[in-house]
Design a protein that fits this description.
This protein is mainly α. It has a domain at 22-235. It is built from 15 helices and no strands. Helix 3 (55-73) packs antiparallel against helix 4, helix 4 packs antiparallel against helix 10 and helix 12 (240-253) crosses helix 13. The longest helix is centred in the last third of the chain and has 27 residues, at 203-229.
Length: 318
């Protein structure tokens, strides 16, 4: 039964847009799936104690690089997204390698990545002649309609299926990491780096490997988010607040559980929509205050997150 259930759930998710096509709920599902893939990308790295606050920067680089290549050079997102992922990976390498090489770990590593988010945000704002600055940036429409070449679609069913595929791919990568030798190496490193190195684990390389995977996945999801929304701004795809949102969603849903970040995505997106609809512009910034407050409460009282706590209770009951 447990083997059949994922296939049944997958078939139901694929069939959903052909049965239910209300635009607004479909839009929310697409956004949730894209953000779920980003949160899952962060958890790929974060579950091993590598707390990065720089993923907001990776998302921003992925989104802006893809859009800039399309607007300025006509480079299709099918090529622009891989280029953006490569740029993200290079930035992650430049930041992470010195940290891991010189044993900058724990809260010091978090602070370094936090600086990355702030720098990316400021560069985007300062380069307003290129990126539009704080006013945002809009990819050019291709002939005003849908285009496979431009990765632009007016039909939400198409976008839902794309987002569903990207989310499934992120879950698959996380699943494969969980069942690879990389997991055991990183768990050993998280417990004691010196002991892991003495046992033959290449500490710097293993940590760098998972960081590059996580960063590239985040850049990919950021580029896809840009293509779907057809508008990006520094505050929505980069910066410290976006990084903290990723941490919040992963922790609240359950960082050690495969579907934990997805549950966290539902909570964050629905909360943001509730505040936007219920309070309008008067609630600007409230979501970050609520995220921070709930994050503290969950770390203290539910460190395993919602899904992790429920899973543990079911295991004990069985």
């Amino acid at each position: 039964m447990s083997r059949i259930l994922p296939w049944v759930a997958g078939a139901a998710l694929i069939a959903l847009p052909f049965v239910y096509r209300e635009p607004y709920p479909m839009h929310l599902l697409i956004v949730v799936l894209i953000w779920s893939s980003m949160y899952t990308s962060w958890s790929v790295m974060g579950r091993f104690g590598l707390v990065s606050l720089g993923h907001g920067g990776f998302m921003g680089i992925g989104a802006y690089t893809t859009a800039l290549l399309w607007n300025n050079f006509g480079l299709t997102p099918w090529l622009g997204i891989p280029v953006a992922m490569l740029v993200v990976a290079i930035v992650a390498l430049v930041i992470a390698w010195p940290c891991f090489r010189f044993r900058i770990i724990g809260h010091y590593f978090a602070l370094v990545t936090l600086a990355l988010s702030a720098i990316v945000l400021q560069v985007i704002i300062a380069s307003r002649d290129i990126t539009g600055g704080s006013l945002g940036y809009t990819p050019q429409r291709y002939n005003g309609g849908s285009s496979i070449f431009a990765l632009q679609f007016t039909d939400k069913v198409t976008w839902y299926l794309i987002a569903l595929g990207v989310w499934a791919m992120a879950l698959f990568i996380r699943y494969r990491v969980e069942r690879s030798m990389l997991r055991y190496a990183l768990e050993a490193i998280a417990e004691d780096e010196d002991a892991a190195a003495a046992a033959g684990v290449h500490v710097t390389w293993e940590k760098l490997k998972i960081t590059l995977i996580s960063a590239a996945m985040t850049g990919f999801a950021g580029a896809l988010y840009c293509q779907y929304q057809m508008f990006i701004s520094p505050d929505t795809v980069s910066g410290i607040s976006v990084s903290l949102q990723m941490v919040f969603a992963a922790v609240v849903g359950g960082i050690y559980v495969l579907l934990g970040p997805t549950v966290g995505a539902f909570i964050t997106i629905l909360l943001a929509e509730f505040l936007r609809i219920g309070f309008g512009t008067g609630a600007v910034g409230w979501d970050n205050i609520i995220y921070g407050s709930l994050l503290v409460l969950f770390i203290i009282f539910l460190p395993q997150g919602l899904v992790g706590t429920l899973q543990a209770k079911f295991v004990r009951a069985a």
